[in-house]
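Researcher: Let's try something more involved. This one mixes different molecule types, so please make sure each is placed in the same coordinate frame as the others.
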Amino acid sequence: MNRVERKKILLVEDEVKLARFVELELKYEGYDVTVCHDGREGMRQITEEEYDMILLDLMLPGLTGIEICRRVRKFSQVPIIMLTAKDEVMDKVAGLDSGADDYLTKPFAIEELLARMRTAFRHSAGAAAKKTLLQVQDLTIDTEKRMVMIGEKVIDLTKKEFELLTYLVQNKNIVLTREQILNEVWGYSYIGETNVVDVYIRYLRSKIDEAFGKKYILTIRGVGYYVKEE
Ligand code: CA
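Model: All components are placed in one shared frame. Result:
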C-alpha cells in the first residue's frame, strides 16, 4: 500500500454556494470531497462511508450539526470541524461540548479552513500514535517504534521475541496455547513445531523476567502462557 491516499472529506453544509466553493477549493488541494446539504443525508453518509474528516455546518435541515456530532462520537473519533455563522456564538460551546475538534466562524478565508484542517489531522494522528503503546505492569511496548521498555530501560529483543511479547501483552490476562501463539507469531507453516514457542519464551524470560527479577510471563502447565496485569 504505497500509493498516496487522498484524504476523504465529508462536507455537510446547506448553503449551496458556500458548499460548492469549499468543495472546489478542497478538491484543488487534493482532497476527495463529498458534499451533503442536509443533516440526515450527512448522517447517512457518515454511517455508510469512511471519512478522514467531517466539516459540519451547525444549522442544517434534518439534523443539526451538534446532533450529528453527538451521534458520530458514539462510534468514531474522526476529526470534526464545525462551521458556524457569526450569530451562533453560544452554539460554539455546545459544538465543542458535543465532541467537535474545532470550529470556524463564517465567513472564513479558505486558507484558515485549510490550516485548521491540517491541525486537526495532526492532532488525530498524534492521538492514534498514542494507542500504539501497550502496557503491562512496568513493561511498555511501543509497537510503532518497535521498542520495549521496563521502566526507563530499553530491552533489546530480536524480531520474533518482540512479536511474541507483543502478542502476549495484547492479550494480557488471557492464557494463550502454544498453537495459538504459533499461528499468530510464526504463521501456520510451523504447525507441529510447538516447542519453538517454549524456546522463545525461555529467551524472553532470560531477557525480561530474570534480568529484572520479576515474573512477567507465566506458565499454565499443559496449556500455555500469559502475561498478568497486577
Ligand atoms: Ca446552515
